[in-house]
């Protein structure tokens, strides 16, 4: 089904305060936000959950989450890929995990306009992006990780590199607001964007089964305008299941609420708000009685799986809702026109 082929849905609503309280209820006293109660924590989803707290008006809890990131950052600027109860479960150090702190910090700044927060978090942001930069190949793509021993895995992931593209945009915006010029990041952004647009074979093609590889090049702003709309339209029937959501993997009858929410963000990024509203409406009945959203559901048998209630799913819904409703000043963070018109990337780095 192509974009715009369905009738416009009723406007869906979200319990912003309730979802914020759900995330806050799982956050630990030290600021860490696990996937779920008793679950693991990874840096990327931790940051996304912190962004959800910012949307919900939980400023202090969001800042506590970023302080946890600063406190747990490794000497090379990275983080362990997964910890549980203070114990490292996965000693990989992923480039996109390290870089995404820039997106979260800039998002929180847009919500709060707190320059002091930017200054405090700058060393953490810089170290995280420099780590990602150290894994950029000569052709522009960024290798996905080092192992615990520091060996580089020379494989690039399209979703991960797209996430890093957005991270460099936000990092440059933070630097511009602090009066700092980092030419190496500007050059890295340009090379990375060229790789995403022009060298698809430089990325692990097996991952093209995953919907994130479909929409992340659009979500991050590497693909814009006609190119972005063509990409979203071309793979629509491969991943989008009307009334259900977005498949995690194209050949499995399983949709997830986080991927569905991120597609909403990608559609809003290209100003396709009618389509975004339509996709967002698919989420309205995909939640538990307590208001938290399912992680995923199979179709057409409607089996909720897994039954884990994840913080980052709640955050993704909040971010999508903000993009549609303009709840916070950060609602347009992923919007391509907002970057162009408001020059969020800074005059020296356009």
Descriptive report:
With 350 residues, the chain is of the alpha+beta class. The protein has one domain: Glycosyltransferase (Alpha/alpha barrel), CATH 1.50.10. The protein is built from 15 helices and 9 strands. It starts with 15 loop residues before the first helix and ends in an 8-residue tail after the last helix. The C terminus is likely disordered.
Topology of this structure?
Blueprint: H1 16-26, H2 43-55, H3 59-72, E1 82-84, E2 87-90, E3 93-94, H4 95-99, H5 101-112, H6 115-133, E4 143-146, E5 152-156, H7 158-177, H8 183-198, H9 211-219, H10 225-234, H11 236-239, E6 240-241, E7 245-247, E8 254-256, H12 257-269, H13 273-281, E9 296-298, H14 311-325, H15 336-342
Antiparallel strand pairs: 1-2, 3-4, 4-5, 6-7, 7-8, 8-9
């Amino acid at each position: 089904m192509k974009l715009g082929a369905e009738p416009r849905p009723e406007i869906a609503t979200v319990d912003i305060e309730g979802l914020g309280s759900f995330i806050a209820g799982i956050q630990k006293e030290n600021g860490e936000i696990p996937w779920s109660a008793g679950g693991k924590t990874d840096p990327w989803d931790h940051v996304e959950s912190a962004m959800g707290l910012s949307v919900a008006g939980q400023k202090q809890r969001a800042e506590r989450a970023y302080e946890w990131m600063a406190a747990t950052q490794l000497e090379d600027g990275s983080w362990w890929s997964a910890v549980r109860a203070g114990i490292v479960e996965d000693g990989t150090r992923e480039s996109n995990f390290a870089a995404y702190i820039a997106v979260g910090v800039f998002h929180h700044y847009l919500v709060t306009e707190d320059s002091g927060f930017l200054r405090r978090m700058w060393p953490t942001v810089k170290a995280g992006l420099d780590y990602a930069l150290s894994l950029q190949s000569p052709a522009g793509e960024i290798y996905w990780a080092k192992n615990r021993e520091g060996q580089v895995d020379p494989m690039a992931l399209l979703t991960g590199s797209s996430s890093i593209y957005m991270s460099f945009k936000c990092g440059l915006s933070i630097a511009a607001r602090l009066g700092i010029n980092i030419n190496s990041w500007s050059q890295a952004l340009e090379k990375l964007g060229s790789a995403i647009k022009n060298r698809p074979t430089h990325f692990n093609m097996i991952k093209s089964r995953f919907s994130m590889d479909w929409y992340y090049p659009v979500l991050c702003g590497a693909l814009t305008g006609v190119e972005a709309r063509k990409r979203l339209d071309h793979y629509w029937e491969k991943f989008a299941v009307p009334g259900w959501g977005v498949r995690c993997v194209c050949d499995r009858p399983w949709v997830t609420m986080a991927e569905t929410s991120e597609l909403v963000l990608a559609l809003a990024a290209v100003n396709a708000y009618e389509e975004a509203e339509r996709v967002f409406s698919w989420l309205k009945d995909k939640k538990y009685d307590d208001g938290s959203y399912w992680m995923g559901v199979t179709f057409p048998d409607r089996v909720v799986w897994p039954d884990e209630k994840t913080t980052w799913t709640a955050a993704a819904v909040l971010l999508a809702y903000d993009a549609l409703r303009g709840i916070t000043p950060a609602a347009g963070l992923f919007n391509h026109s907002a970057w162009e018109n408001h020059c969020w990337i800074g005059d020296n780095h356009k």
